[in-house]
Amino acid sequence: MGSQRGPQVSVRAGRLASAGGKARTRQVAWLLAAVVVLSLLAAASLAIGARGLSLTTVWQALTQFDAANGDHAVVHARIPRTVLGILVGGALSLAGAAMQGVARNPLADPGIMGVNAGAALAVVTGIYLFGVTSLSGYIWFAFIGAGAAAVVVYLVASMGRDGATPVKLALAGAALSAGLYSLMSVILVSSQDTLDRFRFWQVGGISGRDWAVVLPGLPFLAVGALIILGTSRILNSLALGDDIARGLGQRVGLTRGVTALGIVLLCGSATALAGPIGFVGLVIPHAVRSLTGPDYRWILPFSLVLAPALLLGADIIGRVVLLPGEVPAGIMTALVGAPVFVWLIRRGKGAGL
C-alpha cells in the first residue's frame, strides 16, 4: 500500500505544479498584453489632441527632432503630460491596492487616510497665506499636507489596546477628512482669489504640466513604489487577518506602518502633481482581482500597468470630446470609473480581499 501511495502523491504533486506553471504563464501573458496596451496609449497620447499628428511624425519627433518643425515641438510638449499620466496612474493604483490590503476594506482609497483632504487643505493654505501660484509650488504643500494627515490618522487609530485596526483606520480617516474639509471651506469662503486659483488644481488633471512639475515628484514616487512592491507577501498575510499574520511571523504594527509610509509617498506625490483624481486607485485593483485573484504578488504589477492605461485613455478622450476645449482627466476618470465600478460590484467579483 505504501509503495502505491508514493507514486500517487508524486502524480498529484506533478499535476499541481503543472497547473501552477500554466497559471503563471497565463498571468505573464496577460501582463505583457497590458504593457502593449499601455505602450499604444502612450503613443496615442503623443499624437492625439487639438492638433492631431500621425505616428510617423511622432516617431520622427522622438528620433530626429527638428526645433523648427512645429509638429515636433507639439510632440515634445506632450511628453511630460504623458509621462505624468503614467506616473500618477501607477502611483494611485499601487496605493489603492495597498490601502485595501492594509485596511482590509475593498472600498479603501486615498480618502480613507485623509490624504486628499490633507493635500487640499495644505494647497489652500499655501495659496492663501503664501501667495503660491505655480504647480511646482503646490507640490510641496500638497505633499506635506497629505503626509501629515496620514500620520495623524495612523497615530489616532493606533491608540488603544488593539492598535490600528481596519475599522479604526477608516473611522479616523473619515473624521479627519471631515474636519480638514471644513477648515478648507472656511478659507475658500473668505477669499475669492484663493478659490479661483484652487479650482484649477482641485479638478484633477495632467494637462499644463511640464518637466518642472514632474521631476520634483520622481524621488518620492520611486521610493513609494519600491516600498509597496516589496510588501506583496506582507499584504497577502494581512489579508488573512491580524492573528494569522502574527502566526506567520509578521509584526503587524510595524508592517502596517511601513506600508502606510509607501502609501503616503505615492498618494501625496500623485495628488500633489495632478490634483485629486478619483476612481483610479479604487476601480483598477478590483478589476485586476478578476484576472489575478487575491494574490498581491500579481495584483500590484497588474495595477501598476493598467491604471496608467486608464488615466491616459481618459485624458486622450478628454482632449477631443469638446474641441477646441478639454475635459480634465479627473472628470473623465470619474465618468469612466463610476459605471465600471458599479458593474464590478454587481458582478460580485473582485471585491473580496
From TrEMBL:
One of its GO terms (biological process) is siderophore-iron import into cell. GO terms for molecular function: transmembrane transporter activity. InterPro entries: ABC_BtuC-like, ABC_transptr_permease_BtuC. It is found in: Cell membrane. Gene3D superfamilies: ABC transporter involved in vitamin B12 uptake, BtuC. GO terms for cellular component: plasma membrane. CDD domains: TM_ABC_iron-siderophores_like. Its main location: membrane. Pfam families: FecCD (PF01032). It is a multi-pass membrane protein. The chain crosses the membrane at residues 28-50, 79-99, 111-131, 137-157, 169-191, 211-236, 257-284, 296-317, 329-346. Keywords: Cell membrane, Membrane, Transmembrane, Transmembrane helix, Transport. The keyword Lipid metabolism does not apply. It comes from the Bacteria. Belongs to the binding-protein-dependent transport system permease family. FecCD subfamily. This is Iron ABC transporter permease. It comes from Pseudarthrobacter sulfonivorans.
